[in-house]
Write a structure and sequence with these properties.
By secondary structure, the protein is an alpha/beta fold. The protein has 10 helices and 7 strands. The chain is about 45% helix and about 15% strand. It starts with 10 loop residues before the first helix and ends in a 12-residue tail after the last strand. The structure holds nicotinamide-adenine-dinucleotide.
Length: about 280
């Protein structure tokens, strides 16, 4: 096997099985963006381990794609290490780490009433969970000497203020810094580190956040329509979990072999536009 990301890319051949024989760990893979990505990775030939805290649903998704499931609370370093050990025990190598697990966090709207315990809990998942993933994936990939691709799910909130609450915004902005910093160190091992910044994907996390923070009961279809009207330059077109999964597939595959330290926005242009335009 060639080092990850260094093959000459034959787009005709690779379009069918772009991740043939690669091994991937997907955190937060039981539902939403993570589940859609795990499925797409598997369809493209990858062996996928789903690492989540939703055991029943996670195991069902893993079974449906011929993958494996492991209970993994990303805030616990030992759990993340075990997920990577499972990949090594199962297939002998790790090529792709998708640090995707995340929560929307605490309720406080004002910086003046931030609850430090809530903030710590949020950081322990969104930020420390990602640190655990990068650290242990990098160890395995360095040892494997074949390079690899580490992808993290950041957010448009990492780029733009006011899109989300303070804690969430901070956790994702810190993640972006971590991605650039880790990419600088790991490039010498041909390990690429990138993140994706979605916006307005009608997952359970966002639907629940609308309920909790805005007191709005909204269906995924209504949310998608609303995003298509107000938060996308692509009129009428809101985001889907598959849009993010396709971006993850690109960053996981050899087609993106010269891309690292990048934040790929999957936001319909929202974070690049004046608010009157979007
Ligand atoms: P989701 O709630 O459907 O999925 C999140 C997954 O993470 C779930 O399977 C959940 O069980 C898992 N998870 C939560 N805490 C965990 C923990 N401690 N350990 C392991 N797994 C854990 O929501 P989603 O929208 O698919 O979220 C996926 C990622 O996308 C998150 O990092 C989120 O911040 C990010 N994101 C989402 C949006 C959006 O619009 N939905 C926008 C920007 C970024």
């Amino acid at each position: 096997m060639e080092p990850h990301g260094t093959q000459n890319v034959d787009t005709r051949k690779s379009s069918a099985k772009r991740l043939a024989d690669k091994v991937a760990v997907v955190t937060g893979g039981a539902r939403g963006i993570g589940a859609a990505t795990a499925k797409l990775f598997a369809e493209n030939g990858a062996h996928v381990i789903i690492a989540d805290v939703l055991d029943e649903v996670g195991a069902t998704v893993a079974e449906s794609i011929g993958g494996r499931y492991i209970h993994c609370d990303v805030s616990k370093e030992g759990d993340v290490e075990s997920a990577i050990e499972l990949a090594l025990a199962w297939k002998g190598h790790l090529d792709i780490m998708f640090n995707n697990a995340g929560i929307s966090g605490s309720e406080e709207r004002s910086i003046t009433s931030l609850d430090m315990e809530n903030l710590s809990h949020l950081f322990s998942i969104n930020l420390y969970g990602t640190i655990h993933g990068i650290k242990h994936a990098a160890r395995a990939m360095i040892k494997g000497k074949k390079g690899g691709s580490i992808i993290c799910t950041s957010s448009a909130a990492s780029i733009m203020g006011g899109l989300a609450l303070h804690g969430y915004t901070m956790s994702k902005a810190a993640m972006d810094g971590l991605v650039r910093s880790a990419a600088c160190e790991l490039g010498v091992h041909l390990i690429r580190v990138n993140c994706i910044s979605p916006h307005g994907v009608p997952s359970e996390m966002l639907i629940n956040a609308c309920k909790r923070f805005e007191n709005v009961d909204i269906t995924p279809e209504q949310l998608n329509e609303m995003i298509g009207k107000r938060a996308s330059l692509l009129r009428g077109r809101g985001a889907t979990i598959e849009d993010v999964a396709q971006a993850a597939l690109f960053l996981a595959s050899d087609e993106s072999g010269f891309i690292t330290a990048h934040n790929l926005r999957v936001d319909g242009g929202h974070t690049s536009a004046d608010s009157k335009m979007s």
